[in-house]
Amino acid sequence: MTRKDDRRSPASVRRSALWLAAIALAIFLGFIFLSMSRA
Amino acid sequence: MNTAVAELEAHDHHGPEKGFRRWLFATNHKDIGTMYLLFSLTMLFVGGTMAMIIRSELLAPGLQFVNPDFFNQMTTMHALVMIFGAVMPAFVGLANWMVPLMIGAPDMALPRMNNLSFWILPFAFMLLLSTLFMSGGAPAGGWTMYPPLVLQTGDAFPFLIFSVHLMGLSSIMGAINIIVTIVNMRAPDMSLLKMPMFVWSWLITAYLLIAVMPVLAGAVTMLLTDQFFGTSFFLAAGGGDPVMYQHIFWFFGHPEVYIMILPAFGVVSEIIPTFARKPLFGHDSMVYAISAIAFLSFIVWAHHMFTVGMPLSGQLFFMFATMLIAVPTGVKIFNWTATMWRGSMTFETPMLFAVAFLFLFTIGGFSGVMVAIVPADIQYHDSYFVVAHFHYVLVPGALFGILGAVYYWLPKWTGRMYNEKLGQIHFWLTAIFVNVTFFPMHFLGLAGMPRRIPDYATQFTDWNFVASIGAFGFGLSQFIFVYIVISCMRGRGEPATAEVWDNPKGLEWTVPSPAPFHTFEVPPKIPAAPAPGFS
User: Is B56 exposed, middle or buried (0-12, 13-18, 19+ CB in 10 A)?
Assistant: First the structure.
C-alpha cells in the first residue's frame, strides 16, 4: 500500500477526524479555564 | 485495494433509497448538499421576513406596526437566522456538493457524521424560533448576546444558548468532515497547489471554524453558568468582567466574518475564469492571500470594541492590523480583475453576480477600512454606517457569492439549464435593490442615526423610506430565484451537457449532468503538467 492509498484508508480518515475533534475540544475547555483564572 | 474502496464497490449498484428514508438516513454528499441548500433557502426567507418587519417599522418615523421590544427581537433573530441558518449552511451545502466532485473523491470522508451535522440544524432552529412564542418573547439583546443585557432574556435564554451550542456542534462536525475529505480523500495526483480555488477557500474556512466555533461555545456556556449555576464570569457584582465576554465573543466573531466570505471568494475564483475564458491570474498568490486573511482575522477582534476603552497601544495595534487585511484582499481583487483583462468575456447570470460581487464587496471593504480608523470609529460606532458596512459585505458579498454559485452549478445538479432571461432579470433587480436598500444607510449613519432602534428623529425620514422600498423590492425579487430553482429541480428547461459552459476547467465538469448518485468511485487521473483549472 502506498502512502497515497494509506491516506484514504478508514483508519487514516478516523485519525485525522479525531485529531481535529480533540483540537476543538481543547479550545473550548481552554477558553473556559482561562476565563476562570481571570474572573 | 483498500477497505474503503472495496466497500464502495460493494454498494455501487444501488441508487438512492425511496421516500423519506432517502433524506432522513442520507449519507450521499449530493443529497446532504441538497438538503443544506434547501434548508438555507428556507432560512433566507424566514430571516428575510424578519428584515421586512424591521423595514416596515422603519418606513416612517414613529411606531406603526410593532412594539419596541418585538422590534429588538426581530433585529436579534434576523441576524442569528441569516448568519447561522442561511449563509453558513448554504456554503456548507455548496461544499458538500462540490468539494468531492472537484477533488475526485467518491463522497465526503465521514458520511454518517455528515448526516448528523445536517439534521442537527433543523432542531437547532426549531428551538431558536420557538422562542418567538414564549412568554417574554424571543431573545432581544442583539445577536452578540452581550451580558448583562442578554441575562435579562426571559424563558428564551436557555433555548438561545442550547440552539447556539447545536449550531456550533453542526459547524464543527461539518468543518472536520470537509478538512478530512480534502486532506485524505483527494485524487492521488492532486497536490495541494493543484486544488481548485473553491476547495482551497473551504479548507482554510474549515480550519477557521474549528478554531473559533469552540470559542463561541465556551462563551455561551459561561453565560449559561452565570445565569443558572452561580458563577460570575461576566457579572461585575460577583467579581466578573462583562468586557471579557466582548473580547471572547469577538475572538470568535471576527473570524466568523471571514468564514462567511472566504467561500464566496472561492466561488468567484471559479466563475470568473470560466466566463473570461482565461486561467485564474495568480493562483498561488490567491492561496497565500486567503491564508493571510485567515491569519489576520485572529488578531483584529478588538476593532469591534474601540468605544469600550482600551490603552492607546491597543487601539493602534488593532487599527493597523485591521488595515493590513486590505493588502491580501486587494491582491485578490486585482487578481480577479487581471483574470478578466483581455478575456473573451460573456455575461451569463453567474458572471453577472461575480462581477457585481467585485464592485459591491469592494464598497463594503472600503467602508471597513473607514470604521477601522479609531477616531472615526468613535463616531461611526453603533450607527447605521456600520449597518451599511456589514450588509455590503454580507449581501452583495456572501449572498451574491451563493447566488452566483447556484446559477453556476445548478445545471450540474439538476441536469437542466435555468432560464437565462429570468436569471438576468433576477440579477438586475437584486443588484439595483440591494444598493437602494443599503447605500442610503451610509448617509443615515453619517447623519447620526443609531442602529437597533424602532423609531427615529424626523430628519432621517427620507432615506429610511428609500431603504425600506429597496428592501421590499429586494425581498420580492428573490421569488424569481425560487421559481428558477424549482423549475430546474422539476426537470424544466433545456437538458444540460456535462460541460454546461464553454470549456470550463475542473473535475466537476467531467461527470454527466445531472451528476450521477455515485461519482469517482475510481480516483480520476489528474494531468501531470500544470493545467488551467487544476493549477
Answer: middle
